[in-house]
Design a protein that fits this description.
106 residues, mainly beta, Immunoglobulin-like, two-stranded antiparallel sheet, 14% helix, 44% strand, Bacterial Ig-like domain-containing protein
Length: 106
Amino acid sequence: INANELAAATITGKIANQSNASDVSITEIKFISGNGGTQHIVGDALKNAISIDTDGNWTLVNDASWTSALDSDKAYIVQVTLSGTLLGNAMSGLGQTSSVTIDNTI
């Protein structure tokens, strides 16, 4: 991702098979570098502003609080932790992306 793309980047996801789930929410969004970049956890204000629609789609809006925290020339995966209730039982889950390299010089 180059600097122009990062300035407009959003993170989106889809939660599948919600039919028996309730109170599904995103509890953490973390950027993890595999090659020495700084790890970053999205702040509560942005994370709590994410709504999950009836089809399970959600979006983390572009914000300098997370885009500026990513180091240039480092590769990151995005890891998302979910929580909710499934058939009366508290559950949590984890999903993550493929690695993406940030290049702020272009």
